[in-house]
Amino acid sequence: MAKDDGSLPAKTSSTAGSVEDFLRKVSEMPAASTEGRGRLVFAMDATASRERTWREASRIQEEMFLETARLGGLDVQLVYYRGFNECKASRWLSDADSLLASMRKVDCVGGQTQIGRVLRHALAGTQKQRVNALVFVGDCMEENVDDLCAVAGELGLLGVPLFLFHEGDDQVAARAFAQLAKLSGGACCRFDASSPQQLKALLGAVAVYAAGGRKALVDYGRRQGGIVLQITHQMKG
Fold first, then answer.
1. Domain presence at residue 175
2. Are 18 and 191 in contact (CB under 8 A)?
3. Structural domain contains residue 19
């Protein structure tokens, strides 16, 4: 990830107008392209509390590539933060083995959330080459939610939905993740860390969206049912 001093980009949109107008603009953005390979930013909180979920995600991430093979394939960039002011991104990876190798090199280290840096990285990246979606897996939020919402809104206007998967019962994080998802045109779901199948289905769903767009996501939701339907219903809304 490019050097980041932690400051937020200058706001590019006027504060005039209603939230409803903004959300209408997001809803009118075109769905993810189905031409060529999809591009997905796979972001995870790698602070100390995330160690168990990081291991589970490492085991099941192959689902993202398997589900998208027939849709043209998927390129994934792993982004994570941990410790003191550390936030890194891998190169773009096109197969499960490469992603797994990158994840195995990461140890979880205590620290505060850096979700803003993740979102700004995705924003800068999609301005150079289209990113179809960003998925974030985390359990808390320790930043200014208004600042995060500003960047989520910019991503929404560029057609990059956020899919935020929330582990645990932190209500501050739950409310923040829901707002970020809505402003970007994405979705937010809570999952149970004791049920790896839930996370597997959710990651598969986002990968399918990134590679094939809304229609592919709806088809996947019909096949999977369960927790994946939470995503499809929110995307319709």
1. yes
2. no
3. no
Flag whether 4 is in a domain.
Answer: no
Which tens digit of pLDDT belongs to each residue from 48-67?
Answer: 989 889 999 998 888 889 88
Residue 113 in any domain: the answer is yes
If we measure between CA atoms, which residue out of 43, 137, 41 comes closest to residue 92?
41
- 42 has a pLDDT exceeding 70: yes
What pTM was estimated for this model as a whole? 0.84
Query: What is the model's pLDDT at position 17?
Result: 47
Domain that holds residue 109: 35-236
User: Residue 37 corresponds to which amino acid?
Assistant: R
The CATH number for 209's domain is 3.40.50.410
Between 70 and 107, name the one with better pLDDT: 107
Domain count, the chain: 1
119's CB contacts (< 8 A; 6+ apart) are 134, 148, 151, 152, 155, 162, 180
Name every residue whose Cβ is closer than 8 Å to that of residue 183 and which is 6 or more positions away in sequence: 22, 23, 26, 149, 152, 153, 156
Tokens in use for 181?
A: 């998802």
- Alpha-carbon distance of 101 to 30, in angstroms, equals 34
- C-alpha 146/C-alpha 167 separation (Å) is 22
Q: Are 80 and 88 in contact (CB under 8 A)?
A: yes
Give the confidence band of 9 by pLDDT, cuts at 50, 70, 90: very low
Contacts of 46 by beta carbon, 8 Å cutoff, 6+ apart = 54, 80, 81, 82, 106, 107, 108, 109
Quick check: helix, strand or coil at residue 162? strand
